[in-house]
Amino acid sequence: MLKDLSSPFERRCPCPPGQEEDCPVEESLPNGLTSTNGYASVSLASDINCPEELRFQERMDIFPIVRLPNTTQRLSLVISVDKRTFSRQEAFLNLMQTLFICFLLVGGVILFSSDANKMVLKPLERMSQKVIRIGRKPLEAIKMADEEYKKELSKQVIEQTRMQRRGFRATMRRSLVVRASGVFESLGLSKIIDLYRRIFHKSAKPNKPSEQPEAMETVILEKTIIKLGTLLALGFGEAGAQIVAHNLQVSDTAGINVMIPGIRVNAVFGYLEIREFALITDVLVDKVMIFVNQVSEIVHGIVDEFHGAPNKNFGETFLVVWALPDDPVETSRHCDLSILSFSKIIAAVNRSPTLADYRLHPGLLQRNPQFRVRLGMSLHMGWAIEGAIGSEFKIDASYLSPNVTTTQHFVNATTDYECTMLISHFLVEQCSKLLQDSCRQVDSVVIGASKLGVIRLYTFDLDHRNLEVEDRSQFPKKMVGLQRFKAKHDRQQHKDGKLEMAWDPMIMLTNDKDITNMRDVYSQNFFDVGEIKNAQSLPQKLVKTYVSCPKSLLTYFYLSLSSFLKNLLGFRYGFPKLRGG
What we know:
The chain is built from 19 helices and 16 strands. It is α+β, with helices and mostly antiparallel strands.
């Protein structure tokens, strides 16, 4: 290094651009030193000739003050130090610092976005999808509630399994400690066991009842939407699905419009009436609500299983509806399902151990010694207007039509005809051939000023007194948790199977144990004689039964004549009298 510095500065470096004026011109300097336009330099680095080859950040310039001896002139000397090694290290460290900061920022953003997505965005998306789904098909809310309930049950089962494992491990630990304590005490080392118990028993947390963590607001809101949708579906039913769907459409207004125009539909209308309801109300008083709900559970459950829709409950009467599709084959199947469902309702009501308890009720037996829960039923097919009825203060989703009123008249006439079920010929003619043959005509009537003309009334003969009450021990007192979900799942499977092409309603008519038991009492001779009597019945112009005014003299005359013929045929042909529902 000293040798290079003591040698002549023969290497010339050009002036930096823009600094040519500052560079000295060629002149003689003391001690034989000369300078030209530029400056003389010497480099200690083998790969660098001039400082300008290095960037400004890669070198450090030092300007020492050097005076020539015996002169007043100064020598311009610049020492440029190569900092490339330090610059590389500094650049590497800066790069690492930048990458680290980027990593922290990206990680923070991911964590924050993950929490935001998990706690806010995804729940909001799920809630939005649920609202849209309920808006399109309001009845889907019930299925959504079942899906959420299934998830909750799965979590509960997993948590219970986890707690059982913890309890098993704790029990094993205690048993090992007891065994070890016996061994150590036999060896005279009981102090070790005492020390273990002091340390671990003090550090162990006391057993407290598990406290459920507080649910997040978004979870509460999401479940509330499902509950509200389920309540809307249960409150409005199938008739109000259009109202709910119309008002839940995506829009920028919070106003609702429930008074939308109705739509015309073709359907099967069914009425069910609880017999002696006034007597039941007087005796049960405040418990009559429990009684009605017990009957409703049977009626609504079976109607839903047979693809019907419960619509209204007026206390003692129930209105149920089967909406008919455009396909004639499907229409025939729905008509079959309506009659079969009413048959199953009769069987379920008479076999229910809960409703059988009312046969032993002291107050009811005092009024009627032969009391039992009985229903009157009617079925009719026709058109109706489906929509909202009411005002902005209260609305009901129902059906308006003369056909609905006609069905209600029929259920009132079941008592006069001493039968459980009355069916109009409009419905019977749409049923399958075998089911048509299973129905028996009882009368031809004209209802007041109705434009339906002459209506032939049929009945589906069933004697419920051959049924036995089911054993109460076979049923749980109250289905909860998995039992309730499994029951709903099985019922849904049976419901879906009834619309498959392979399912034949006639198989149920001939193989169902309850229906066959109720029809075994009627011989084929009974149905044959019934056909002869109906074929030779009086002309319709001479005898007309006005169901709307059953107290008329003509009605009583005809019913008395019908009862006389029934008793006469029963005496001659040996089949039992027609017994009331």
